[in-house]
Specification:
mainly alpha, 434 Repressor (Amino-terminal Domain), 0% strand, globular
Length: 77
């Protein structure tokens, strides 16, 4: 899913995992408020997430960190 916003990518993960934002936050060890900022109106201020958070998402949920960060992945191994 190229050309998506950070908000859309985080929401996609939560939806596909069939969990709520609180569970998402708990599993990543981040605050629920931060998840709401990432998936809500504050994304105009928070337009990126950290490499560390992207790697946590990759480890916990299996979504490539590069995709979480940029909305794209390379096919290189």
């Amino acid at each position: 899913m190229a050309n998506t916003t950070l908000e859309e990518r985080i929401t996609k993960i939560i939806t596909e995992q069939k969990i709520n934002k609180t569970e998402f936050a708990k599993r990543l060890g981040i605050t629920r408020n931060y998840v709401y900022l990432l998936t809500g109106g504050a994304t105009k201020k928070i337009t990126t997430c950290s490499q560390t958070l992207a790697l946590l998402i990759e480890k916990e949920f299996g979504y490539p960190a590069e995709w979480v960060l940029k909305g794209e992945t390379t096919n290189e191994s």
